[in-house]
Write a structure and sequence with these properties.
Strand content: 15-25%
Distance between the termini: 14 Å
CATH topology: Rossmann fold
Radius of gyration: 14 Å
Structural class: alpha/beta
Mean pLDDT: 92
Low-confidence stretches: none
CATH architecture: 3-Layer(aba) Sandwich
Number of helices: 6
Length: about 130
């Protein structure tokens, strides 16, 4: 098993298939594994089942069924998941949305369309202390 395979994955919660595939490609090219959830219910199920805790969560705000704001609260209340970094990745760029996400427990907020190198730098910043 390589070091990459033993590292926890990055969870990507994104309902836009094109964006989720771009994120998966970008992250895997950097050597990270990914877990994909395409809506809020799938993401909640991954959290509740907790079979594999991610090293970081990239989370869209506008999702079917359960939005990103509620998912942040679910993650923060789940034992063992409380300190997983959450980076919101969304087209919602109003200050109130950013404040709401950060107040809910998100660690960072990136507005779409995002710059790939900036996103990767932010991910690296949160994962630098991880094995």
């Amino acid at each position: 098993m390589t070091a990459t395979q033993s590292m926890p994955p990055i969870m990507v919660v994104e309902d836009d298939d094109h964006i989720s595939q771009i994120l998966k490609f970008m992250l895997e090219r950097q050597g990270w594994r990914t877990l994909l959830a395409t809506d809020g219910l799938a993401a909640r199920k991954l959290v509740e089942e907790g079979q594999e805790r991610p090293a970081l969560i990239l989370l869209d705000v506008m999702l079917p069924y359960i939005d990103g704001f509620e998912l942040v609260q679910i993650v923060r209340k789940t034992p063992g998941w409380e300190n997983i970094p959450i980076v919101m990745l969304t087209a919602k760029n109003m200050e109130r949305d950013i404040v709401r996400a950060l107040d809910a427990g998100a660690n960072d907020y990136i507005v779409k369309p995002f710059q790939p190198n900036e996103l990767l730098a932010r991910v690296r910043r949160f994962l630098k202390d991880k094995p």
